[in-house]
Structures are given as structure tokens and as C-alpha cells.
Design brief:
Layout lengths: L1 H10 L4 H11 L5 H11 L4 H7 L26 H4 L5 E4 H8 L5 E2 H14 L4 E6 L12 E2 L2 H8 L3 E4 L1 E4 L2 E4 L2 H12 L2 E3 L5 H6 L1 H10 E2 L2 E2 L4 E2 L12 H4 L41 H24 L2
Cofactor: Mg(2+)
InterPro entries: Rege-1_UBA-like, RNase_Zc3h12_NYN, ZC3H12/N4BP1_RNase_Reg, Znf_CCCH
Family: Belongs to the ZC3H12 family.
């Protein structure tokens, strides 16, 4: 009797020592309900419940080993590039500033307007390229407005100065357009400029295709940066698809028939009729082929039946 009761409560998950103590106190002839009540009163719990209530200990992972937890990341790791669905933006700072200043003044406020427009759309990678000599005090032949904006954008790691230096009193300037096209090509991004970069297109055929397909032109309307809704023309992608890594294709729409219900072409009409929900969009040649296939298939089946014994 003692062994049977001991095995019964051990199968329930209670400790062997706790069951023996209760049986010694209540006697070997105690009922199972009484033994269970005494175990509960003593605070004894099954091993399954104890494992649930106790917090799981922290696991130490050796340095350099792979962890299966999805939340673990390397220090300093930024997954914004993987989750970001918008293309990187590379802005031709000189072109934008001169356009905003009506080609007379290098207006840094125009660069700020362009950067703010892409920020509001959610672009995280924005780079502006400006020649280094624009940091110098303005001269009469090259006036600059709101020059402090360049310093603010440089502190935000958005503006990049292309190198330049003076040799024997003459300024040696590196070609900033080459920086713009090269960075945009490597990042698979978009170039914001009204320049066509024809000299760079002739240098590299890959750059030629990239400039033709990824050049975003713009206009300034009352201090408002406005790129076109159709950057590659009427039959090209929309602005949202142009700036997105994963463009969303619109659903095909049938052009409604200009004759409406008065159309006499029937199923041969290539236009859409809302009053015909199950209209077959087939050409005349396709309809004739479909009609011819049916009797031919029936004739072949009859011949096979006749040949079979």
C-alpha cells in the first residue's frame, strides 16, 4: 500500500521525500484525498509547476558563436538599409543652389528645401555634394546666400565637400559631377539634378544607362521643391515607383468603348463594356482558331474509335 501510494503521487510530479513525510504523519491507511490536501498545505508543488514558476536562467553565448535568437544584434549594427524600401538620394548641390538662386546666386536655402522634401518622404540616405571652395567667404563674381546652412548640413553628415586646393594662387577644383554619379551608381540610388552629365555618359556605358534611368529633375515654385510626377515621361513609372526599390505596378484597366451600348462589334470589340461582365477579350483570329479546334478534335476521336477492334 505504501509503495502504490508513493508511485501514484510521484507520477503526479510530487517529490518522493514530501510524500513519505505526509504518509508518516497521516498513516499508511490515509486516503489519497487527505494526502493530496496535506501536500498542498505543506506548499509542495509538482515539478512541472516549479519549472514554470522559476525564471529561466540567462544563457551565456561564447564570443564569436552564432546565436539563434532573432533579437540579438551586433553592437552598432543598423538594419535601416535592409528595412528601408526607398532608394538613396544623391543631390547635386551646386545645380540645386544655382537653380533656386535663378542662376545668379548660390542659394543654400534651395538645398535645404530639397533635403527636407526627401526627409518628409522617409528617405534615410541623403547626400549633397558641394565643392569645397564654397566654404570660403563669398566674392562679387560668386555670391552665396545663407551660407550657414552648409555648416548645419555638414554637422548632420548630409553634406559632403568635394576636394579643391590652390596651387600658385590658382584654384584646382576636382570634378564634383564624377563624385555624384559614382556614389549614386554604387548605392543604386537617384541623382537629383537638372544636368544631363553628357560628358560622363560618353565615358562609361553603364553610367550612361544609369543617368538616363535614375536622373530626377525638379523645379522650384515659390520656394517649393517640386519634382515631376512622371520622371521618365508619360509612359514611364510614377514618382513613387521611381523612388522606391520595390515599385508597385498598377492594375491594368480596360479603356471603355466610345460607342457604349450602341456598339455593334459584339465580342469582337477590343474596348471594355461594363454591361458585359463576361466579355471575351479575343481577337477575330483567336475566335476562329478556337472554333476550328473543336470539330478537329471530335473528328480525331471518331477515327480512333473506328480503327479500334
Amino acid at each position: 500500500v505504501h509503495q502504490s501510494k508513493l508511485d501514484f503521487f510521484c507520477k503526479l510530479g510530487y517529490g518522493k521525500q514530501d510524500v513519505c513525510n505526509v504518509l508518516e504523519n497521516l498513516g499508511q491507511e490515509a486516503l489519497e484525498d487527505d494526502v493530496l490536501k496535506e501536500l498542498i498545505r505543506m506548499g509542495s508543488k509538482p515539478q512541472a509547476l516549479e519549472s514554470q514558476t522559476q525564471p529561466s536562467p540567462l544563457k551565456l553565448v561564447a564570443r564569436g558563436s552564432c546565436s539563434t535568437s532573432s533579437g540579438s544584434k551586433w553592437l552598432g549594427e543598423d538594419d535601416s538599409d535592409s528595412s528601408d524600401h526607398l532608394r538613396p538620394i544623391v543631390i547635386d548641390g551646386s545645380n540645386v543652389a544655382m537653380s533656386h538662386g535663378n542662376k545668379e546666386v548660390f542659394s543654400c536655402w534651395g538645398i535645404q528645401l530639397a533635403v527636407d522634401w526627401f526627409r518628409e518622404r522617409g528617405h534615410t540616405y541623403i547626400k549633397v555634394f558641394v565643392p569645397l571652395w564654397r566654404r570660403e567667404p563669398p566674392r562679387q563674381d560668386s555670391p552665396i546666400a545663407d551660407q550657414h546652412i552648409l555648416e548645419e548640413l555638414e554637422k548632420q553628415s548630409i553634406l559632403v565637400y568635394t576636394p579643391s586646393r590652390k596651387v600658385k594662387g590658382k584654384r584646382v577644383v576636382c570634378y564634383d559631377d564624377r563624385y555624384i554619379v559614382k556614389v549614386a551608381y554604387e548605392k543604386d540610388g537617384v541623382i537629383v539634378s537638372n544636368d544631363h552629365y553628357r560628358d560622363l555618359q560618353n565615358e562609361n556605358p553603364e553610367w550612361k544607362w544609369f543617368i538616363e534611368q535614375r536622373l530626377l529633375m525638379y523645379s522650384f515654385v515659390s520656394n517649393r521643391f517640386m519634382p515631376p510626377d512622371d520622371p521618365l515621361g508619360r509612359h514611364g513609372p510614377t514618382l513613387n515607383n521611381f523612388l522606391s526599390k520595390k515599385p508597385v505596378l498598377p492594375e491594368p484597366k480596360w479603356q471603355p468603348c466610345p460607342y457604349g451600348k450602341k456598339c455593334t462589334y459584339g465580342n469582337k470589340c477590343k474596348f471594355y463594356h461594363p454591361e458585359r461582365p463576361h466579355q471575351a477579350q479575343l481577337s477575330v483570329a483567336d475566335e476562329l482558331r478556337a472554333k476550328i479546334k473543336v470539330p478537329l478534335s471530335l473528328g480525331k476521336e471518331e477515327e480512333q474509335r473506328n480503327r479500334s477492334p
